[in-house]
Amino acid sequence: MSSQDHDDGGFSFPLPAEVDDWLTAEATRRDESRDDVCRQLLTAAHTVATDDTLEVADPDELTAVRSQLEAQREEFTGLLEDVRSRVVQVKRETDGKALTDHDHPAYATADDLGAIRDDLAALEESVDRGFDNYEAVLESLLETTDELDDRSTLLARAVIELREQRDALADQRRQRAATERLQRAANQLGIRTATCADCGSSVDLALLTAPACPHCASRVSDIAKRSSIFGSHRLETGDPPALEGRVESPTGSASNELFEAIEADTESGNTTRSDGDGDDVAEKSESGEADR
């Protein structure tokens, strides 16, 4: 009979009212039946009583853990209260600054966003169009600069040619004036022919075209009349003495200043152009000289 009861494993006994109420509440809390809760309690009690390897918690350690948990709970509660008080304070300050009937701006609508997109597209188109025009203006300026460079080069060459022609004409005038001076002096002295002091050749003074011996090309500076009947008139050679106090004519000075100013402007323009694109200027100068 006892063996049969052991196999069934079932028994019942009355519980005190307080224990019965606790058991009912624990079963409800765990969402289990009273029998399951009782079975778990008995199994746990059996394990504690029979398992020698089971480590039982030290009461002092449990007390320390409880004290630590309580201290952390109090600290957390204090921090929570501090945060709550700060939030309340910030809200009160914000409510004090904001007007009672204040309103917030509404969010942008789809139409507003569309208008902004249209404005942005128009701005991009305007910028692109401006850059296109900028490139056209830049190309036009470059072409104009090249044309001005060509003209300045031609002007410089013309200035050089004019200066050379002016110098040649001035030299011719000086030569003619010197020749006329010699012929006038010979006419005043009644001399028709004279002997060159360098080569000894006879020179017809009326046929002179330059103040130089036509035979040896020595420059004639003056005419010396013969000192005796058996002698001959003589052409003195060499450079004439410099005239003191000689002043250049205002016309010549002004023309020199004009030529120098034009050449300076041309050279400065060519220098500036060569700094930016020296190869192009050199090529254009060579092509211009070939054309001329």
UniProtKB/TrEMBL annotation:
Region span, Disordered: 232-292
Basic and acidic residues composition bias: residue spans: 281-292
Keyword Coiled coil: yes
Superkingdom as given in the UniProt entry: Archaea
Coiled-coil region: 131-182
Coiled coil listed as a keyword: yes
Keywords recorded for this protein, A-Z: Coiled coil
Name of this chain's protein: CopG family transcriptional regulator
Source species: Natrinema zhouii
Lineage: Archaea, Methanobacteriati, Methanobacteriota, Stenosarchaea group, Halobacteria
